[in-house]
Amino acid sequence: MSTLTTRALIRLTPQDEQENLRSFLQGLITSDVLTTPLPVWAGLLSPQGKALFDFFVWADGEDLLIDCEAEHAEALAKRLSMYRLRRKITIHRDDTLAVHWNAREPSHAATQDPRLPALGWRWLAPADETPVDADYLAHRLLLGVTEGSAELGDLLWLETNAAELNGVSFTKGCYVGQENTARMNWRQKVNRRLVVVPLEQSREERRRAAYPQLELAVDHRRVEDIEPVDVPSWLAPALQAEEEVTPAPES
Q1: Residues contacting 186, CB < 8 A, separation 6+
Q2: Are 43 and 32 in contact (CB under 8 A)?
Q3: Considering only CA atoms, which of 2, 20, 49, 43 is closest in space to residue 187?
Q4: What is residue 31's DSSP assignment?
C-alpha cells in the first residue's frame, strides 16, 4: 500500500559513545545535519562538485539511516566506508525497514518530503506487500522534481536544482565538492538545469532519462533553451533571478 521497493536503507551505528555520526556526515554531504531537523535531502559529490549519490538522512536514536536508491545502496555504503577511515562506525544495509510514501498525510506519524511539501509524505517501517513506486514516479515527475543516478548522476549539484529543493547548505562549511558548488552559487549563475518535459519535445542529445509510460523525459538543458511552460512554479523564481543578474549584451 505504501512501500517504495526502489529505495533501501543504510544504517550508520556508532561503536563508541564518543563517536558522533552527524559530524561524520557533516564533512561529507551537501546538507546540514548538525543544526537542521532530520530528515534532510542531500548529495554526496565528487571533488569536482558533481553528483554521485542523492539520498535522505533520517535519525533513529543514536543511529542515522540513509534512504537511497536500492540499486546503488551497496556502492553508497562502500563510498561512505572509504571516508570512515579509523572512525568507530558500522555502515551496512538494513533490510528490516523500508521506505514508505503517500501523496497525502497518513493517519500515523510521517514527515513531509523536505524538498517540496507537494511531494507528499515519507516514513520508515517494515515493508508491506503493495509497492507504490509507479505512483511515486508519476507524482514526482509531474512536479518537475528529479532524483537518482539516472537523472542526476555526474551533473554539477546546482544543475540538478538542489538549491531550490533544500539539498545544499551554503553556510555549513566544507564538504566534498563544496568549492565548486559555492563558486557557482556566488556567481549567481547556473548555466544548465534539469527539467522534466513531454517526451515528444525531449531532445535526444540532452536527454538524461525517458519514461514512455508517462510520456515524459528528463532533459539537461541550457537555461535559455528551457521553455517557460516546462518550468515548475518552485523553480521559476530562481530562473527569473538569474535572468536579472545576467549582463545585458553590448550594443
Answers
A1: none
A2: no
A3: 49
A4: S
